Amino acid sequence: MKQEVRIGLGSRAGFGASSFALFCTNSSCFYIGAVLIQHWKASYGDVFKVFFALTMSAIGVSQTSAMVPDVKKAKDSTASIFYILDSKPDIYSNSEECTTLSSVRG
């Protein structure tokens, strides 16, 4: 139980940090864009093109960091499935040592 709480707190802290980075990116884009427009170095449309490109990449990063615990669980599940598939069964039905019953009732 404590391990799950620790994992949950860690993933939420990571998501909070990535959201903070997203909002810092937004505010930086707006500030730098306003300065560039004020000094006639960029147009209004150019600033918004860059803003949306950076915003979409920052959103992708923030959503990816929220999925880190799920990726770890998926890796563990995959390893477990391959362990089961690679294991040798205790009963092998095609073996010559097995006894085959002629009839079964019940």
Automatic annotation (TrEMBL):
Keywords annotated in UniProt: Membrane, Transmembrane, Transmembrane helix
Keyword Transmembrane: yes
Single Gene Ontology MF annotation: ATPase-coupled transmembrane transporter activity
Chief localisation class: membrane
Subcellular location: Membrane
Topology in membrane: Multi-pass membrane protein
TM stretches of this protein: 20-38, 50-68
PANTHER family according to UniProt: ABC TRANSPORTER B FAMILY MEMBER 9, ATP-BINDING CASSETTE SUB-FAMILY B
Protein name, per record: ABC transporter B family member 9
Protein species of origin: Olea europaea subsp. europaea
